[in-house]
TrEMBL record:
The keyword Oxidoreductase applies. GO terms for molecular function: oxidoreductase activity. SUPFAM superfamilies: NAD(P)-binding Rossmann-fold domains (SSF51735). It holds the Pfam family F420_oxidored. It comes from Corynebacterium curieae. This is NAD(P)-binding domain-containing protein. It comes from the Bacteria. Residues 6-91 form the Pyrroline-5-carboxylate reductase catalytic N-terminal domain. Keywords: Oxidoreductase.
Length: 198
């Protein structure tokens, strides 16, 4: 089967941890340039990663959002048309203060992301694990870590499953996108380390 390609918005703690895990299993990974007027592809000798404009990211099989969620509206939604997008973002202080507009436990943020990227197929996952745990080595006979996903589009969820299993996690589908509220800060599955019984 052909290897998946991944475009990532956000080369911070989470984006880098996921990228390293993906590269270690042979996936093609490129980060989005933050300054969208640039048209070249850049190679970072220190990390080995490539940075490319949104038009290049739009050609990848999957796009991962790992930026502060209040930067969402800096993205150009036209580059997300028809794409499967993993929303790994959370809203919590100090990124966003709790307020009437953002009551931390009541707003289903992935549905807001879906609303903004209306022509994309948004799947929520990878937001409920700490980036430290993405560096955990489970190759020594230890059990695999389990992630969860929520999303409305079945094909998009199949693609995300391929990716998540390729980077060596188990994955539980918890249903439609709005169920993702259980995966975000304050939700019952946030930060929970599930263990499969058999
Ligand atoms: N850290 C975790 O363990 C963890 C776990 C689960 C979920 N999350 C979520 O993942 C997201 C990122 O968290 P983080 O801890 O990785 O934050 P971080 O270390 O601050 O990294 C965020 C990165 O996004 C970049 N960025 C901001 N706007 C961008 C844009 N429009 N296009 C491209 N890149 C952009 C930032 O660049 P500049 O530095 O140049 O601004 C920075 O490199 C947040 O929503 C967070 O809630 C984090």
């Amino acid at each position: 089967m052909e290897q998946l390609s991944l475009g990532i918005y956000g080369s911070g703690k989470l984006g880098t941890a996921i990228a390293k895990r993906a590269v270690s299993v042979g996936l093609d990974v490129v980060f989005a340039l933050k300054h969208f007027n640039q048209t070249n592809v850049y190679h970072c000798p220190k990390t080995g990663f490539e940075f490319a404009p949104p038009s290049v990211i739009a050609n990848k099989d999957l796009i991962l959002l790992a930026i502060p969620i209040n930067n969402l509206d800096t993205l150009d939604s036209t580059f997300f048309k028809g794409k499967t997008v993993i929303d790994a973002m959370n809203h919590w202080p100090p990124e966003i203060e709790e307020s009437e507009e953002w009551p931390l436990q009541e707003v289903d943020t992935s549905s807001l992301v879906q609303e903004f990227l209306s022509e994309a197929k948004v799947v929520k996952t990878l937001n409920h694990i700490s980036y430290h745990d993405l560096y955990r080595n489970d190759k020594n006979g230890q059990r695999k870590q389990t992630l969860m996903m929520a999303g409305d589009d079945l094909k998009a969820k199949q693609l995300v499953r391929r990716f998540i299993e390729a980077i060596d996690f188990e994955l539980i589908d918890i249903g439609p996108l709005q169920e993702g509220i259980h995966l975000q800060p304050g939700g019952k599955f946030f930060g929970v380390d599930f263990k499969r019984e058999n």
